Amino acid sequence: MKHLKKLFSQEKLEPSEKREYTYAVMAIEVEGAEELLAQKKRWLKNRIGRLVRIEQLSEENAPDFVEVWNKALLTAPDPFRPISLEKAKALPKEGTFIAYLFGKPVGFIVCVVDGEDGAIAGLAVDPSRRRRGIATALAIRAAEYLLSRGVKRVVCDIYLGNRESMAFVKSFGFKDTGERYVIAG
């Protein structure tokens, strides 16, 4: 999973511009999570998220990924880092998914597998489309992907200032397991 740090790293900053960010390390043991996943699927049937089409990242839809990444994360409380088309194309295609609603890209999720461990490296939804089940649709697709790869545990880092994301992952059963500090620059 170390390759993700390189993909998501910021450009060099001057020493005076360096900042420290704190992330909660969230984790869930996969065993026994099937019922919660089934509950989320039932919940989604009554939301606009049921209309979402999810595609795996490819060379052809990479520009859509860049569009939704840069739009969705611009308003997030997390430290924003735009992504280039080149970096988007370097992401692992197999675990990266784009959500479309009425033909427009509206969200994404990036997940990776490392042996029996899985990680959600990024999840975001277009600000104008939030709170409609799109993130849930993406998380369900990621869960199906990770389960099919035999992972036993899934982790994700949530920026401490992002209360909505923290509540979202907790609704999927993730528990706080500690903190991680990142110095940008």
**How much helical structure, as a percent, in the residues?**
25-40%
**Biggest sheet record:** 7 strands, mixed
Biggest sheet, spatial arrangement of strands? 2-3-4-5-6-1-7
Distance between the termini: 20 Å
Q: Any guess at the CATH architecture?
A: 3-Layer(aba) Sandwich
Low-confidence stretches: 1-15
Q: How much beta, percentage-wise? A: 25-35%
Q: What's the level 1 CATH class? A: Alpha Beta
Strand tally is: 7
Order of helices and strands: HEHEHHEEEHEHE
Structural classification: alpha+beta
Briefly note the CATH topology name: Aminopeptidase
CA radius of gyration is 16 Å
Total count of domains: 1
Average pLDDT figure: 81
General form:
globular
Q: CATH homologous superfamily name? A: Gcn5-related N-acetyltransferase (GNAT)
Notes on the protein architecture:
The chain has 185 residues and is α+β, with helices and mostly antiparallel strands. It has a single domain (2-184), classed as Aminopeptidase. Helices cover 33% and strands 31% of the residues. The protein has six helices and seven strands, in the order αβαβααβββαβαβ. It has helices at residues 2-8, 34-44, 62-74, 85-90, 134-148, 163-171; strands at 19-29, 53-56, 96-101, 104-114, 117-125, 153-159, 175-184. The protein has a seven-stranded mixed sheet with strand order 2-3-4-5-6-1-7, with helices on both faces. Helix 2 (34-44) runs antiparallel to helix 5 (134-148). It is globular. The relative contact order is 0.26.
